[in-house]
Structures are given as structure tokens and as C-alpha cells.
């Protein structure tokens, strides 16, 4: 287009200038509408407000109108950034936000920004917090970057008093920083309803790491605060600012009114430059002996105060306790790198290796030692040098609960395991080698928890002949022989257990996380060659071993092998975590390793499809975390731009159907979740054969036959013909009717019949070879991508 102006442009330009001028005069916030608003951002609701020391939540709506994305960009990921943040205010980031592209009419979602109002923040009305959403996608004309922004408005008050508001900004929302507002502070003294109270019973609740401003408003005034402390965690209680004329002191009490700590003046805030003139008090690095509510008394040392003098009070958390901020430099102890068997450090008989650290989360320490056949060795951990204060569980260290594994000379075959010894959370193994050689020991923390403060000493003792030693000596008896690996005498195939090249950090062994006697192992995290528990191995072998060996030609029930072991949150588990393992088609779960291993439901199969469709990620028997439904194709090629997604079924899974036995499925579903009529041929094999009253859905004959099929299975070391699986255990109840869809498979569009069940999806492709026409979808891979944002190996 030519840059030369023509007379017909002038009226439009004049109107635009008049509109801009009018907006400035009347004080209306001006938003410039771009010529092509492919994304939009706006604040929702009235401006929120809150006192100094509180959290203010702003809600925004983000709309994606992108309609020219290619199949390589089914979604766009938007990054949210902020600018013009007032001094004393901290803004939390919501992280990346994903929205699907090419949705007719656009698609929207809401997100929140949480503003932590610090003690130095100036009260007033703020309306120029610049919020920007930016992303990029593959368009039909190449990679395209898009962004939009808007202003967020909020009010900081003091004791409910709102500062005088300022005018809205008169600039367009661009990343250019604009001058901040000039608020009028509300009164601090007298505090009225904001007064923290003058005794333990009326103490004001404060949040950790959230400074609050208060005053010693009159002579003799004192303030009481309360906060929640986590046992073993370290806190610093501080007066960060204090008006001249005050000389405050801090006293810390427990729930029973017993004084735990006191400080008047703390001049060593900077150890490199102590300042004797700094009379602000601080209780430095106090560790809570147990979970509970703690109380702080703030008063003028001479009970003088008055004159409306103010101070800033805060309880700071330090990098300690169950969920510390990891400091990488501190994580590395003297023995690193020692995270793999081939990196195992040598420990000598009767040697003490002090100061091992289990850091960061998931860390494992490996050592090796030479064992002489017939001699008695004890190897154990000792956390007592780093234990808690004497008044709280004084034989333990906060966060430390070691587990120990003894491996054979190959570093892979598990020989023994220890969790706790009598009277302690430390671990110990007594070992009598049968042959000379170097043996391997792995030390981890239960639940894979780790931080720079979890430390232990490692000791290897070689006992004097005919005597026992060790920290907790055991009777001098010969060790039981290791459980033999189950053999398969009547059956030999080409691939007894599918194997591959272990990924870095992968574990390879017979039964790394369980034993047939019910003993338990530590939770495993990471790529796995083999199985995380012997029960997982047995369940896989029953149906898929004969497929892997080529004995039968049929589709997989789980997949060629286990792919990834994970310790996932589950509130009813003893440690709050449960062992799971992912396969192509699903996930195996071990909820109670101490349960009855003969129970068919000892291993469970996750309700993955229900989570993918609803976005409700399950973290307990009745506990969920709400996320976005999965924008992942249910079947076919991953880059198919038209295939229905799991999210496409969100509406239809809520609709029960009547009993339609004998009829054929004649409905279709598309990517937008729209239901239509199927114009293809009526296939007799797809007529409804069973109605499930529990969920109100019909199952076609081709799926019902598959769910009740019989065939060759491998069980207890032998091959036999039996029902392949309990369909309720493997797939669960149906949660949708079967729908036809046009799906691209191997680059070719085909008619595919799709039905969703609680745990799996079933697809029927009439054009596929016999034995592969009905398949289970790759739900395990889809779910892992949705939950962790990465592909399974």
C-alpha cells in the first residue's frame, strides 16, 4: 500500500483524534483497538483492595482469536508478564497459559495475579499495572508473534481507609513505563479494628513472609501477633523498620504461654559490618519444635512509645524444613558425584564417612565396599549428630528418614533392604557375603524428599570373629538365600522381558521395588528398564509377554514395556506418595504396598481418561486438582488438525443414553465437540450388544467381544487359554456413547469408531488387519504429556 495520504483519510483521522481527546478529558481509561485483535486481555470485576500486609488477587480474561494456525500449532502458549509494579508490591506469575487455536468465535480462559502488599507499599489507588500476554505460533504465512496488554487496577488501604484515587493513565497500553500514582496515605494511628490486641488471646494472625505495618500509638501500648509454624522449620522474627523514638523488644511464646525466645537489640544484621546503633530487635533463625500456633509480643522496652510511632513486623521463613528452597552449592557434599552405581565411592571396613547430604529431591548416594566371604559386616546411617533440639523427638533430624538397599556385585540384583532400625529412623543392614567381591549400597530418603539440611554419617563395620557389632546388633545367624528369580520351565520365548538401553539414571534389576513376600522398596522416579514392583511385572506378563515374544498376533493391553516410574501424590498413602508406572496404554498404581498381594485389585489402573476429559487431576481418593481438559487427540496422528480431542468429549460424558441394544451407532463427533449424524454404512459388527446401567451407556458388539475375549495368557510360569482381562479392572465403565470420527492415521483419513471408558479408550478401524481392528488408545502417553508437559521415552 502507498504511504501517500489522500483526502478521504482525513475524516477518519479527525474522528480518531477527537475520540482520543474526549477520553482524556473525561478521564475514561483508553484502550487502543488494534486493526487485527487476534488476542484480547481484560481485567474482570471491580478493582480489588486490601491492607498493607495482605494479598490482593486480580482476575483477568484472556481470549484467543487466532484462526490461521497450521496443524503444527494446535495450541498457543502465552507468557504473562507485568510492568509498572509499585514499590513494595510483589506479583506472582501464573505461569504459561495454553489456549487452542482455530476455534470459531475464539476461546477464552481466566487467570489471576496475586499481589503481596509489603510493609513499605504506599496506600492508594493504582491503575497502571501493565499486564502483557505474549506468544507465538506457526501460521499459514510462517512463525507469528502476537501480544496484547491491558492495565490492572487495585487499591491499597490502611485499616480500611482508602487513599485518594488518582486519574486513570492517559497512555495506550504499551510496555513503556508510565509514572506511578501519587496516593494519599490513610491513617495508621489510632488503629481501631486493626489493632493486633494487647494479649495472647486477641493476637492478630500474620502470614509468613508478609510484612505488616502497625503502631505503638499511645504510651503503654503493646501488640500481639500469631503465626503458624511447621515443626523443624526455621523462622526469623524481625522488626524491619522502626520510627525514631521507639525501642522495641520481641518475645516469642507457645500456645501454653511459655516464653521460648526474647530479643531487645540486634546489631549483627550484617555480620561483616555490625552496627551497635541498630536497636531494632530480631529473633534470628529460631526453629519451631513442632507444628502449631506461636505468639509474638511487641512492646516498647520501657513501655513508653506513643506519638503515633510505627514499625514494620514480619516473620520470615528460611531455607529449611520439609519444603526448603534448595541451594545448589550446598547440595554437593564431599562424595559427589555418587548418584549412579558406576559412580559409587569406596568405603573401607570400620570407616566413618561424615556429612553425606540427601540433596536435592530425588538424590541417591551410592557406595561400594569389598566383602570377604563368611565375614560379618554392618553398614548403617547415623543422623544423630544432626538431630533436633532436645525437647522434640530428640533421636531424629528434621526431614531425615533414610532407606538403604544392598546390591550384588553387578550393582543391579537386590540382596537386602532396610528402612528403620529399633528406636530410630536410620537404616542398617547386616551382611555375610557368600563370595568375595565388591558390593554396592544405595542410600535414599523416604518419599525422595531432599534438601541441603538432611545429613547423615555412613558407617561400615567389620565385626571381630565370633562377635556381633553394628549400631543395633542382630543375632548371629546365616542369611537367608535370596529369593530366586522365577523360572519358566515349560515355556521359552524370544523375549522373556522386553529390554532396551537404559536411559541415564535408569534402574535395571529383577524386582527393584517390591518382592513376592510383600516387603517394600523405596519409591522410584525416572525412566525404568523393567518394572517398579514385581506385581507390575506379573500383571504385564499375563497378557503382553506372549505378544512381545511373537507367540500371538493381537494388540497390546499395556504396551511393549514399562516406560516411566513415578512417585505421585496420593493423600491416603502412608507417605503421601504412591508408586506408579506408565505404559503406552495406561498406568499401574500401587496404593498400599503392605496390602494383600493376592487381591486382584492390589494393583490398580488409573482413571486417566476421566481426568483427561474433565481436567480433574486426582491426588487422593476424593481429592482433586482442577486443570484444563487435555487438548490432545484421542486417536490417530498427533498432528491431525481435525481429530477430536479429549476436551471435545467434555459435554457428551455428562449425557446418559437409553438402552439401544440391537441398534447401530449413528452419531459423529468433531474437534469442537459438535455431535452430528453418521452417513457411512451400517456395520453389523458395531450394533449395540450390551447396556451398562451403572453409567448409562451402550457398548457395540465389536467392543463387547473384545472386552470378553479369550486367548493365550502367561500365568504362574505356564501358558494357557483364558479370559484375557477383567474389563472393569482394565477399562472401567463407559463414560460416553461410541462416536464415529474422521481421523488421520499414518497420513490417511479414515472412519474410526471411538468410545471412552473411565480408564481407557477403545477404537475400531474397519480397514485394519484382523487382530488390530480394535485397539486401546495410547492413554498412558497422552496422560503423561498432559500431566508433566513432556513425552514418555
Brief descriptors of the model:
mainly beta; flat; 793 residues; 46 strands; disordered N terminus
- Structure annotation, total helices: 7
Q: Number of DSSP strands?
A: 46
Percentage of residues in helical conformation? under 10%
Class from secondary-structure proportions:
mainly beta
Shape: flat
Strand content: 25-35%
Round the Cα radius of gyration to an integer and report it.
33 Å
Query: Ends: how far apart?
Result: 51 Å
Low-pLDDT segments: 1-36, 160-187, 319-323, 475-521
Question: What's the mean pLDDT score?
Answer: 80
> What's the main sheet like?
6 strands, mixed
How would you sum up this structure, described in words?
- The chain is mainly beta and 793 residues long.
- 8% of the residues lie in helices and 35% in strands.
- The protein contains 7 helices and 46 strands.
- Strands 2, 4, 6, 8, 9 and 10 form a 6-stranded mixed β-sheet that branches. Strands 29-30-31-32-33-34 form a 6-stranded mixed β-sheet, with helices on both faces. A 5-stranded mixed β-sheet has the order 11-13-18-15-16, with no helix packed on it.
- Strand 39 (688-692) and strand 40 form a beta hairpin.
- The longest helix has 17 residues, at 10-26.
- 36% of the residues are buried.
- The model is unreliable at 1-36, 160-187, 319-323 and 475-521 (pLDDT under 50).
Tell me briefly what this model is.
The protein is mainly β and 793 residues long. Strands 2, 4, 6, 8, 9 and 10 form a 6-stranded mixed β-sheet that branches. Helix 4 crosses helix 7.
